[in-house]
Amino acid sequence: MASQLSPQEIHPASAVVAKDDLVIPLIDFAPFFEGTPSDKHAVALAIINAFQTSGFFYLKAHGIPPSVVSRVFTSSTRFFGRPQSQKDALGWTTPQANRGYVAVGREKLARVDEPTSIESLRASNPDLKETMEIGREGVNGLPNRWPDHLDDEGKNFKETMQAFFDSCKLLHVQIMRAIALGMNLPEHYFDALVGDGDNTLRLLHYPPVRKDVFRDTSAQIRAGEHTDYGSITLLFQGRHGGLQVRSPKGTFVHVLPLADTIVVNAGDLLARWSNDTIKSTRHRVIEPPRPAGEDVANEASDSYPARYSIAYFCNPNMNQVIEALPGTYGDDIQIAKKYEAITTGEYLTQRLGATI
Ligand SMILES: O=C(O)CCC(=O)C(=O)O
Ligand SMILES: [Fe+2]
Fold first, then answer.
1. In angstroms, what is the span from residue 252 Cα to ligand 2's centroid?
2. Which CATH superfamily is domain 7-353 in?
3. What is the dihedral of CA 341, 345, 351, 355, to 10 degrees?
4. Is the CB–ligand 1 distance for residue 311 below 6 Å?
């Protein structure tokens, strides 16, 4: 059966990261749309193989033009450059809403198995980042916190982010089609289950940090070790690295920005939906590594540059009941369902309530 191919035999993937048993391939999505049925199947297998091993892959030819991504980054940078009072006035309120601005130090990402330590972690070493969370538009009682009443720049921000939200929403559905095929499910299996777009667009800004902050406080990081919560995350990285993924050996490996690609990783709900055949892998953000050949002037600088990134957290529909997918359990394969059924909404509210 084709799904028993070894990773090396799967055609469209080549490894970008291969360290300490963590292998993260680069997958070209173009053949999924333009290729023969067998090309399409090969892409699906490469994706499912990546999700079943490292839980991460880079994706190129994903269909969102570089010019669009660059406009979103510009708009995000300008937003974070606004006076603190303007940003605070758009503040995040509740886990149910999960929309609005989150100031530096408010969120402390942590491992799911250590929920009680969050307060003490936040007090000692808050995440050195600020974020803007944008949810699905038009949900009753849960408005997005747009800056469009402030000025033209604010109006432009709203339009740019709404359009980007919709492009990412489509990409989610397309990647879920590849996952369905890779799991021997019908291609459109997930369409109606994830198609509502109950997703979150998160703009991230990690301000410049003095090097001695990282040096003197070993627990200080830009985003603490965590797994993502939903189905998949589409991560657009700016110029500066810092993202690290935990390897099977327990080390953290840099997953650097690669031009015109995104990093896609599986979240906890997809892992749960797949009865843990798909992995949602821990990751974190620290200071960027020193680039090879970096000049002396830069090396001598006493701070690390700002990092901007954009995470689009995809979810199944809020009212979707998540329980083990066909083919991931049963007497024939002697695997039991590992989890109780839960709706996306219940699950996310539990998780978000624990970190903010
Ligand atoms: O900034 C990044 O590269 C990653 C952010 C992240 O992992 C998250 O917000 O869940
Ligand atoms: Fe994350």
1. 14
2. B-lactam Antibiotic, Isopenicillin N Synthase; Chain (2.60.120.330)
3. -170
4. yes
